[in-house]
């Protein structure tokens, strides 16, 4: 099947990374890293073609990547948003 091919996962990863550039926020980048990791593991022969295992590895890798990105580039400790005007005021 198509999900067993390593290049499909890499293409999905690259597509998500490009979408992250268009829609910033470090949300899609975690999924891109997860997809690229699954593609790499399929390429070197560590993973088989079981869809459940591929999706599980993708989900775990994406979650770990998202948490790592959140810690690296997320809101810094002590950073406060100061509002200088209220949208309800005229």
UniProtKB/TrEMBL annotation:
Keywords linked to the UniProt accession: Membrane, Transmembrane, Transmembrane helix
Entry superkingdom: Bacteria
Transmembrane is among the record's keywords: yes
Transmembrane parts of this sequence: 6-23, 51-69
Protein name, per record: NfeD family protein
Top-level taxonomy: Bacteria, Pseudomonadati, Pseudomonadota, Alphaproteobacteria, Rhodobacterales
